Amino acid sequence: MEKAESSALKEIWGNLLSSPRRIYETAFRSGAPKTDRTRSSFVFGNVFLHLHSVRTHIWSLKWSTTMGLGIISTAAFLITLVTGILLMFYYKPYPDVAYQSMKDIHFVVPTGRFIRNIHRWAANVMVIAVILHMARTFFTASYRKPREFNWLIGWGLLVTTLALSFTGYLLPWDQLAYWAITIGANIAQSPREITDALGITQYFDIGGLQRTILLGSDEVGAEALIRFYLLHVMILPLILVMLMAVHFWRIRKDGGIARPDDADEIVGNEAKTSYPVFTEQPEKTYHLAAIVKGRTPAVGSGPENTLPSMPHLFYAELGVLMLTTFICLALALISDAPLKEIANPLVPENPAKAPWYFLGLQEIVSFSAFTGGIGIPALVWIGLGLIPFLDREKTGTGRWLGGPGGWNLFIWSLLIGFGASVGIEAFAIYFGWLREWFPDVPQLAITVINPGTVLTAIYAAYSIYVVRKHGSTRAGAVALFTCFLCGFVVLTVVGTYFRGPNWEFYWTPSDWPGH
Amino acid sequence: MTTKPGKEASRFDPEPMPRRDFLGLAALGSAAAAVIFSLFGMLRLPKAAVLTSPSKKFSVTLPDTLEEGEAFIPEGRSVAVFKDAEGVFAISTICTHLGCVVASRPEGFECPCHGSRFAGDGTVTKGPAPKALPWLKVTADGNRLQIDENEEVPGGTKV
To answer: How confident is the model at residue A290 (pLDDT cuts 50, 70, 90)?
Structure first.
């Protein structure tokens, strides 16, 4: 009796002593990831890592395939997530109080200003990286079957990223914030430009409804700030994270990064020479390869030019993550995030500028609110979403500008995109537009015919010409995408550097009156 | 159940729709209906029945020194009040383009945000503004003026 008791106690003691090891073993069932096989099991059995396939094709690991832009976007998002949560310790979403809390973060909170700078820079890096990532996917035609749906998810991620940035721009409640939110809310209201012209606003006021729901009031005030705060810290990040999960999952389910059909011949048989495929004889592989159906890369025989994701892919990803962090920290040390005077509803900033990535939009908004703020962006957005469903050609998938036309077409499109946008801008700046020539022109005419729509029409006409010339949808898509990207850059640069007080054109800020 | 001659129902005939399928579909349908109805309920939430907005009516007395063509901006309001030989009138200084506050200049109004210009009577002369600046209702009570920012009057109405 006594003996049984003491042995039971002994057992508990022994279990207690071995519990750390047992906890480790139950958490990581496949054991220490020391061989290719255990590493593969480790990747496969880990909820975070299994978004990667166990083995990665050498083509996908090449720097020129992706340039790491997806990982840069993700890394920048993670940085904004961490710094954003830190800022939430002090930020209070109420008019005027919000501004005071920003001042506190700047001047009282230890590291507060640095954290805010990092947050701001990481958000900017994220916007740039997401746009470049989209361009990479487009120019390598990686959106094609079976990746069409993932392009759509990325399409949603782009919009969510921009919305996150814009809602964040408003939170400091300084002059920049207040007038950006005012302009943004009135862009939401701008369908009235059409309904007013048609005389149906009193029956069908979609613009007014959008504005009221966005602001929660007739005015930009406490209701609006709490709504943007809620969007910025809760609703949009949740949407973003969900879309990201689907996006990553689909990369794996769609067979990894897109590569050309002859990728194996191009990379040769590097895999066997650069790294041993197996460091031990596989005992059994069926629990990795045979039971799971679908697009799981086989582990065991390695006919393709693949390398184990761990460590090859993970080191690459970690490197990009560290580089992104370094860039954000360095920028945060060099340059402070702006904080202007407290919001004043009676005196707008002059010039009142949106965040830089919206200055291209602000430029076309300055021709017509509805066309520039809703019409053309919606058109571009729908066009982007349709790309994989219109271009169903085969040639050039996975290669930079691999399809018909190639680099020549790209350079021509760049020239035309640049020439047309600079030309139309110069024309509008120098000669003015319809209102200045015919003061009584109806508003609907300006909404339909303005520099923004003319530019869009030129780009569309050029790409239709390219489609006919090359007999290829892809060629037309390359032309149109390149033109719009180029136009976006040109308009953004004009809006950023060449617009001064009253949105007048100035060669340099030193020409601004009052300087 | 009445049976027609020659088409007698047999218990060996397959049911048109198995009962389990029917019950399953009915359950799914009611669950979907519940979700849709609750979604509509939630969609109703963001638009409050009463919106918080400060009063748009205010009273003001013009200074005696106000010259013809010179704008008087009442404190805290986006309204320009003018006085000439025919009477007093008020023009809203909120740009009809995207809601910035326009500045009053001798030659009219100019908007700092997207470069719209307006003549002295509020009509658009340049830029993206779709409509003229609205004239606001002014009621005179001796020297005291009452102005309602919510009520527009046709251009040219002076009191």
So the answer is: very low
pLDDT at A281 over 60: no
How long, in residues, is chain A? 515
Whether the upstream peptide bond of residue A146 has omega within 30° of 0, thus cis, is yes
Q: Do A193 and B130 touch (CB under 8 A)?
A: yes
A366 and B78 in contact by Cβ < 8 A?
A: no
Is the minimum CB–CB distance between B101 and chain A shorter than 8 Å? Answer: yes
Domains and CATH numbers, chain A: 61-261+308-349 (1.20.810.10), 361-515 (no CATH)
How high is the ipTM of this complex? 0.82
CB contact under 8 A, B112 and A435: no
pLDDT in tens, A57-92: 888 888 888 899 999 999 999 999 999 999 999 999
CB A52 within 8 A of CB A256: no
Answer whether the bond into residue B130 is a cis peptide, omega within 30°. Answer: no
Chain B window 109-148: which residues touch A at a Cβ cutoff of 8 Å? 110-115, 123-128, 130-131
| Cβ pair B114:A366 closer than 8 A | yes
Asked if B155 has any chain A CB less than 8 Å from its own CB, the reply is no
Which domain range does residue B102 map to? 57-153
Backbone angles phi, psi at A270, to 5 degrees: -60, -35
Q: Predicted confidence band at A2 (pLDDT cuts at 50, 70, 90)?
A: low
Does B117 reside within a domain?
Answer: yes
Judged by a CB distance cut-off of 8 A, whether residue B76 touches chain A is yes
Nearest-Cα distance to chain A for B33, in Å, is 24
Helices (H) and strands (E) in chain A, counts: 25, 2
From CA A118, how far away is CA A114, in angstroms rounded?
6
Asked, for residue B69, whether it belongs to a domain, the answer is yes
Residue by residue, DSSP assigns A223-258 as HHHHHHHHIIIIIHHHHHHHHHHHHHHHHHHTTSS-
Whether residue B46 lies within 8 A of chain A, CB to CB, comes out as yes
Helix (H) or strand (E) segment spanning residue A1:
none
Counting residues of chain A whose pLDDT is more than 70, the rounded percentage is 92
The answer to whether the beta carbons of residues A502 and B115 sit under 8 Å apart is yes
The enclosing domain of B123 has a CATH number of 2.102.10.10
Q: Is A208 on the interface with B (CB under 8 A)?
A: no
CA distance, residue B44 to nearest chain A CA (Å):
10
Q: Are A435 and B124 inside 8 Å of each other by CB?
A: yes
* Max mean pLDDT range (A82-91, A201-210, A333-342, B40-49): A82-91
Domain count, chain B: 1
Of the partner residues A218, A346, A504, the one whose CB lies closest to the CB of residue B78: A346
Instruction: With cut-offs at 50, 70 and 90, classify the pLDDT of residue A285.
Output: low
Compute the residue count for chain B. Answer: 159
Q: How far apart are CA B112 and CA A7, in angstroms?
A: 86
Q: How far is B152 from chain A (nearest CA, A)?
A: 15
CA–CA separation, A48 and A46 (whole Å): 6
Which residue from A minimizes the CA distance to B75?
A346
